[in-house]
Amino acid sequence: MNPDSVNGVAVIGGGLAGCEAAYQLAKRGLRVTVFEMRYTGRDERSPMTTPAHQSGLLAELVCSNSLKSVETANAHGLLKAELELLDSLVVRTAKLSAVPAGKALAVDRTAFARAMTGRVSALPGVTIKQEEVAAIPAAPAVIASGPLTSDRLAADLARAFGAANLFFYDAIAPIVAAESLDTGRMFRGSRNSDDGEYWNCPLTKQQYQDFATALVRAERHRPHGFEAGHYYEGCLPVEALAERSIDGLRFGMMRPVGLFNPHEGRRPYAVVQLRQENAAGTMYNLVGFQTQLAQHEQRRVFALIPGLERAEYLRYGSMHRNTYLNAPGLLTAALQCIPRPGLFLAGQLTGVEGYVESAATGLVAGINLARLLGGGEAAVPPETTMIGQLCRHVATAAGPYQPMNANFGLLPPPAAATRDKRERNAAHAERSLRDLRAWAAANAI
Average pLDDT, stretch 87-93? Predict the structure, then answer.
């Protein structure tokens, strides 16, 4: 079936984002056809699948069975609370499929996928077509085809939006909380410039050699077979660069040329630069530090860098297959495609990272496409909410665009400043949920 022949709305992709979008559209009275290229056979296995999926069920979780924390003092817990407030099918179904996981929401993968498949199939006006969509539909649609978008659809996305705006691999550097940095051990400055835009972490020769050695010896995340070895020379993992030569980092992202350490009155032997990640200055990116180290090893090894001994990681570094668009300039914060107003995008294809983040964008895309088709205007959740800020990141992120997950660094500081992290996060959560309730009421969400 050609999506353009659909009587209603096409949703391309049956993952978390696609299922959430379909639910939000259907509950607002629209007819929806969900296209999922993975075919469900009698034994729930598929002759057409992806390198990561095992079945043709909708909303199959492939990387982990955890949707992370349920505590609202945690960014992922707050995001789930926001979604629950807005009637998220994904969160509701996950709670019914939960397995014991302490303060996290983890699910029985098969039970969750079967439940989601059943619930979406039973929605009034929803049809599921198990076939590949090879081109962007002209009809009203939400594309939520995920990080493993089929080659033919990815090629059409590249034709429509420019090959330079479609990425096939993430090269993600860690992001740390500004308040967790020991800036007394750093200095401000930019290479061959007086603007001082970066925090610089200077290393002596011995510190540098110890760090490079620790990088090479550290435990690494084991990628899926379809992800392994696909490195671009321009964005090698730091540990791979260190393996090639002890001085590889010092002549790359850690080069000290053009920098002067005022604490010592000379140029450092090597330097790690931290670049401001958001306008509020609450998040900093380790420039050029894409990595495949295991998360606990990132905490251990990067703590050898002066100033990062007690760094709080808002996002860990990684490299893996992840088809996504360079969304700023292509999408609005409502997730509407600027060149094609009847088209909305959702999920990891937009450049959000994570299960719940994907569901959140599906929810926003579904709500706003329904509003558009009903003659209304788009509505973006408030900037004080995790959902709202994830959508704004997609639309307005500056600099090299990289995927983002939920973290408190995205939110503007709460009115009552406090140095206690849990109190501050609790204040974030209280404000977010209050503002989201008011927004939902004002917009009849």
Answer: 98
* Confidence at residue 169, expressed as pLDDT on a 0 to 100 scale: 66
- The structure's pTM equals 0.75
CATH class of 175-316: mainly beta
pLDDT surpasses 50 at 370:
yes
- Topology of domain 3-169+323-442 in CATH is FAD/NAD(P)-binding domain (3.50.50)
Q: List own/partner pairs for 221-228 with CB under 8 A and 24 or more apart.
A: 221/292, 221/293, 221/294, 221/295, 221/318, 223/292, 223/319, 223/320, 224/51, 224/52, 224/320, 224/321, 225/51, 226/51, 226/52, 226/321, 227/319, 227/320, 227/321
Residue reference for tokens 């996981």: 101
SS3 content of the chain, % helix, strand, coil (to 5): 35, 20, 45
What does the pLDDT read at residue 422? 86
Structural domain boundaries of the chain? 3-169+323-442, 175-316
For range 128-147, the mean pLDDT: 92
User: Taking the alpha carbons of 128, 133, 139, 145 in that order, is the dihedral positive or negative?
Assistant: positive
pLDDT of residue 43: 45
